[in-house]
Write a sequence for this structure.
């Protein structure tokens, strides 16, 4: 296989271990490419610490004209994040204890509308392959039992693979629990070492 | 037509069928490239919140 990173086959690279930095201009983009929620959050929200890295990479994906793959879980996770933002803005470090406090809900509702409007604009500008949970449930649970990957990560990884994506863009190092031969990882430079150290030998 | 991917080939799950992938594929809703570029910019610029969004806020560890 010609690796999308433009280097040796992902499964044979002892150094790279199928993990590549999205800051590298020469990084090749496979078509389609999968996007994880962690990357989308950074790309969408301007106050996130990796927005300056993830937003340009998203623009690069757009300009290249390739298709993007996501799990339908993405939209639910973004909604959950919007709700949690409202809680955290009001309660700071105690936000988890106040989930049922109705005073945060008006702000949560506005943030949710705002987030989903941006989600619709973002994916409305791209060719978007949205994989349902029903399509990947069996594979995701196999990944969990075979590799110890967390359930949400397993769902996103399985969605990428069944759609034929040869890389997933993420800032979540948990995807590195999968063998490099299954799914190359595109992440920010600061996570390369952590991802590579987690890859199964 | 529905085709749930469960089989594996050499340890790698099989892709969904082309027919199923076609069902799940949504082309851009904006007609022109400029409209798409503008929509993407609107989606990703100026969304500022007062807290840092951490993975536990969307159900991750």
């Amino acid at each position: 296989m010609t690796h999308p990173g433009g280097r040796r086959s992902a499964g044979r690279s002892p150094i790279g271990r199928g993990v590549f930095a999205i800051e590298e201009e020469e990084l090749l983009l496979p078509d389609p490419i999968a996007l994880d929620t962690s990357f989308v959050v950074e790309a969408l929200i301007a106050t996130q610490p990796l927005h300056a890295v993830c937003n340009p990479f998203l623009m690069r994906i757009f300009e290249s004209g390739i298709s993007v793959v996501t799990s339908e879980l993405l939209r639910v996770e973004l909604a959950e994040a919007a709700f949690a933002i409202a809680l955290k803005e009001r309660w700071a470090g105690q936000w988890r204890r106040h989930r049922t406090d109705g005073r945060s809900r008006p702000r949560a509702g506005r943030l949710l509308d705002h987030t989903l409007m941006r989600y619709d604009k973002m994916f409305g500008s791209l060719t978007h392959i949205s994989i349902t949970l029903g399509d990947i449930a069996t594979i995701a649970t196999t990944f969990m039992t075979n590799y110890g990957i967390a359930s949400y990560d397993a769902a996103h990884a399985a969605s990428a693979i069944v759609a034929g994506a040869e890389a997933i863009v993420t800032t979540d190092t948990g995807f590195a629990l999968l063998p490099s031969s299954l799914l190359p990882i595109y992440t920010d430079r600061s996570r390369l070492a952590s991802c590579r150290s987690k890859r199964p030998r | 037509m529905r085709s749930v991917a469960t089989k594996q080939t050499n340890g790698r799950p099989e892709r969904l069928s082309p027919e199923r992938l076609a069902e799940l594929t949504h082309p851009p809703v904006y007609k022109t490239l400029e409209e798409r570029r503008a929509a993407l910019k609107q989606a990703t610029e100026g969304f500022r919140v007062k807290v840092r969004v951490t993975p536990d806020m969307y159900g991750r560890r």
User: Anything to note?
Assistant: The interface with chain A takes residues 2-6, 8, 11-16, 20-21, 24-30, 36-37, 39-40, 42-53, 55, 57-61 of chain B (CB under 8 Å). The first strand of chain B starts at residue 8 and ends at 9.
